[in-house]
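Work Package 4 report. The design task specified in the project plan requires that, given a folded chain encoded as structure tokens, an amino acid be chosen for each position. We show below one input record used in the internal validation round.
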């Protein structure tokens, strides 16, 4: 039912060699017999090979940093097109699949929707050697959209995806119809007040993750200490990959992208955004990278999303701010109706 279609962006004489390089990943030297059956569950290998996304998955091949990488994406076309496209950019702890309700909403209203997995996430490649930057991810996204025939779209970014959406809008303003930032991170410069953590330290932290720690982090950080059965779907991938033998590959990519987020805030460039922008901000959100090892007096001041959202709205020329009370880091999960209304009223029709 889920069909993969390869879109080739560049014909390479050395494709087999490059592909082999992409598939070379760090792997744990362990005995599978010492672990439960989930250790070999193909749904949760490094590229989620057997994990079913809600819509057909396609792949774009890119030649980047002297290697061939692939980007997975869903491309959902409406029965009655309204002539507009929307690109959905996922957060750090998620993949494109969590956008399913938003995709269904937008497709029902006539939008063509493209939701990619960025390199290092989901079904996309996780190269061992890769210089992650939001500029690189933005250019990858541009190349993917060009291959799909999408040259002008509204861009919606959540969390880390909000940082990427800002970078994309700054680099390619002529390609952005409207910009929507949903509880974006990077609205404050953590590296200026929080001690630096090396990539090796991030990696060791990620290697220790378990299904239980993933659930606990999201429960306390995203949902105000509460948990509902429907949230299990939101952590299925993040929890599942920790139990697979290829998890070191995922953990390494995660460490590299944490460093990207920590060292590349977008807050200083918000005044340069020149496209119509909407911020949707859950007011209970207190997400802040590095709070756990920041000095106590600093930690208490980080992640104040009511204040951060208002400062961002004031910095972005002509932007609109929608504040959703009593909602945390994922308005599209906790308060979908309010999120959908704000999104629908802002997007072109």
């Amino acid at each position: 039912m889920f069909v993969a279609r390869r879109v080739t962006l560049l014909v390479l004489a050395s494709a087999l060699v490059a592909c082999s390089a992409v598939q070379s990943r760090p792997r744990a030297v362990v005995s599978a017999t010492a672990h439960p059956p989930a250790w070999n569950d193909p749904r949760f290998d490094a590229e989620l090979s057997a994990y079913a996304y809600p819509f057909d998955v396609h792949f774009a091949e890119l030649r980047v940093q002297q290697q061939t990488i692939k980007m997975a994406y869903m491309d959902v076309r409406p029965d009655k097109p309204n002539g507009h496209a929307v690109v959905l950019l996922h957060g750090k702890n998620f993949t494109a699949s969590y956008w399913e309700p938003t995709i269904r909403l937008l497709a029902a209203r006539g939008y063509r929707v493209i939701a990619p997995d960025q390199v290092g996430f989901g079904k996309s490649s996780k190269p061992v050697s890769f210089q992650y930057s939001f500029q690189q991810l933005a250019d990858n996204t541009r190349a993917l959209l060009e291959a799909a025939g999408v040259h002008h779209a509204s861009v919606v970014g959540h969390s880390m995806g909000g940082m990427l959406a800002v970078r994309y809008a700054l680099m390619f303003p002529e390609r952005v119809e409207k910009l929507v930032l949903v509880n974006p991170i990077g609205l404050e410069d953590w590296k200026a007040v929080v001690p630096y953590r090396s990539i090796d330290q991030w990696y060791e932290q990620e290697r220790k993750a378990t299904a239980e720690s993933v659930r606990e982090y999201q429960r306390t950080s995203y949902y105000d200490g509460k948990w509902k059965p429907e949230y299990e779907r939101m952590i299925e991938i993040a929890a599942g990959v920790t139990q697979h033998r290829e998890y070191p590959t995922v953990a390494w990519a995660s460490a590299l992208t944490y460093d990207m987020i920590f060292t590349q805030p977008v807050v200083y460039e918000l005044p340069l955004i020149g496209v119509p922008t909407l911020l949707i901000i859950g007011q209970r959100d207190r997400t802040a990278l590095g709070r756990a090892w920041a000095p106590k007096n600093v930690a208490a001041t980080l992640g104040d999303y009511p204040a951060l959202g208002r400062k961002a709205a004031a910095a972005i020329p002509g932007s609109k701010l929608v504040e959703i009370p009593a909602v945390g880091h994922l308005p599209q999960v906790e308060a979908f109706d309010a999120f959908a209304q704000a999104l629908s009223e802002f997007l072109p029709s």
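The longest strand covers residues 67-76. Validation will be extended to a larger panel in the next phase.
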